[in-house]
Design brief:
Chain lengths: 362, 362
């Protein structure tokens, strides 16, 4: 086997296949697109030749390739799934230009993966939590996968996992704030399973206001949950709804919060490595989180927050939250969840996959 | 350009990509799958090396390739569309084994068509009648298309049409019956746009019983239409519902009917070359049909039936139907709508596409 030293040591030609539900970076909600943005910028900084396949209004330091001008989340086309396939076909038609295709678009691109010699690496982003994906993932179980937490592998242990690469953020976008204000915060999808109602109860019991920010699920069920179960509590004082905020505004809100609250009830709903928690930690904000899913990999009690088993415990631990060293929280987060750490983790995987695929074909 | 004389003159290696909604041939309803079956058998008889990509329970003289054991119409998997894509990927992964891929599965396979050098020919089967397909078809408008009637091209004139190839049937399966009985017949999908209610009215006005056979659309709307608008008329005597019949039983019913009735109201609902009409004509049964869509290409008034503009005219023409020469109807149908005629028509297209694609790559 002849080694391509450009590939192994220096500059890789990398195709990043992003979702097209939201722009890269997302204007507001859109964690997969946000991770894709952070990774792409990280790889470009390292000197790689990166092509980002994303919606046409995306902003990137990489070369941009698009077949849709606007992301599907902002359009009302019939057949959105068909457009996803056109987007996927676009990268596979150009596969020979790349050393690696990095798939961030769930299982669909796997279906195309045997139609090219270019290796494909798939980041799951929690998608294997949904049983309807399993038959498809299992057909391609020998492809190359990355989990974004060790916990994520429990959703579908049969896949060929190369590594766990935690999501990473750009720390410049999440400043440290010396001034704190008296409120708790949750940002993300405003759905029941994220423990929003528990967070509201925690706020009532501790008399510390709660600020909510994020996206109301556009499904009938999602809207109903917001209208019937959350909205009645919003009084603009004790419980505030700030809307679906940009990253900049999210950073401002979480950096001044007493604590970030993530009281999910059960772990089987796609939680894999919540970006909002990383963003909170990046600001130095402690996290009060339920002890399940990937949370024990992210939170160390008494260091960067508290893992709790009940609302009662959350109330109790919240009293100790001011004692935590917020600078240390930020420092530790930077070691584990930085853009650079993530980009290096993926680069390591790219090199392994390229080497493996090379040996199959040479 | 070097010509491959095996390809141009003799035996072609043909991949037929069938839908997987129903088995090939369908157990009952399933016109696309029925046409695929008729074509595949025709091509095998001509000596070509045919591989049929279809559900695993299909019956064929060709080689069968399947990724699903049961057709999607008989299963309740989540993600049926994903399984269609696995089925499509299966043929494209093996594309190098074929001189041509003949797509009978709507627009999705076009998305894969640039990932192989093997030429792809697409039969529309009326799919371009639905506007939500247009953006996708237009992206691949320079691919090679066959319309199943000249009328069909009006749905989307911009595509690269090579030819019109009418659907064909195996005449052995549709015997001529000397004994007639006093009833009208309609077979096919029992949906409003097929003019079922008009057929019922025609039956009432002429006092000739009407036999209905076919599939009740499984959608909420489709069931509602059947329950509320058709079922109340079914008395087992004047209006009979025979169920979703096998081809053999359909042939028995239509061959003895006074006339086949097809009173569609408007043409923009995907009518392209109704197989049920061809089956009626094959039996020698005259057709009373609305003068629109592809019907004027199929029916010649006073020869093999009557084209009508109103219910009144249908009543009037029905009186003359017994005067038509049923042997002649069958004879004419065999010239235009036979399995052999269809297979030859497609073979001609295959050779043209192979020649064109060859010149692009050589």
């Amino acid at each position: 086997m002849q080694m391509d030293f450009r590939k192994m040591a220096n500059c890789l030609k990398i195709a990043i296949l992003a979702p097209i539900t939201w722009r890269v970076p997302p204007r507001a909600y859109g964690p997969w697109e946000r991770v894709v943005y952070n990774l792409t910028e990280g790889l470009v900084k390292m000197g790689h030749k990166v092509t980002l396949f994303a919606s046409g209004d995306s902003e990137t330091s990489a070369k941009l390739e698009s077949i849709v001008k606007k992301p599907l989340g902002e359009t009302s086309w019939p057949n959105p799934r068909a457009w996803e396939h056109l987007h996927i076909a676009n990268v596979f038609e150009k596969a020979n230009n790349f050393d690696i295709i990095h798939n961030h678009l769930n299982y669909l691109p796997l279906i195309y993966s045997n139609l090219t010699k270019t290796p494909v690496l798939t980041t799951l982003h929690g998608s294997a939590a949904f049983k309807e994906t399993h038959l498809i993932f299992l057909k391609y179980k020998n492809s190359a996968f990355v989990s974004v937490s060790n916990f994520e592998r429990s959703y579908l242990p049969e896949l060929n996992y190369l590594s766990t690469v935690y999501n990473g953020v750009d720390f410049k976008a999440f400043p440290f704030s010396k001034k704190l204000e008296n409120y708790l915060v949750y940002t993300g999808r405003l759905v029941k399973e994220k423990g929003i109602l528990e967070a509201i109860r925690l706020s009532f019991k501790t008399k510390i206001p709660l600020y909510l920010a994020g996206i109301i699920q556009p499904s009938v069920e999602g809207r109903k949950f917001f209208e019937k179960e959350i909205k009645p509590h919003i009084d603009g004082k004790n419980i505030k709804f700030l809307g679906n905020l940009s990253q900049k505004k999210v950073a401002q809100v979480i950096s001044k919060a007493l604590a970030y609250v993530f009281l999910i009830k059960e772990s089987k709903k796609g939680e894999a490595c919540p970006l909002s928690i990383i963003e909170a930690l990046a600001c130095g904000t402690p996290v009060i989180a339920t002890r399940n899913g990937p949370l024990p990999e992210m939170i160390q009690s008494k260091v960067n927050g508290f893992l709790v088993n009940s609302l009662k415990e959350a109330v109790d631990k919240l009293r100790q939250v001011k004692k935590l060293d917020r600078r240390k929280i930020r420092f530790l987060a930077r070691q584990k969840f930085s853009q650079e750490k993530m980009a290096n983790g993926y680069l390591n995987c790219y090199q392994r996959v390229i080497k493996d695929k090379g040996s199959k074909y040479d």
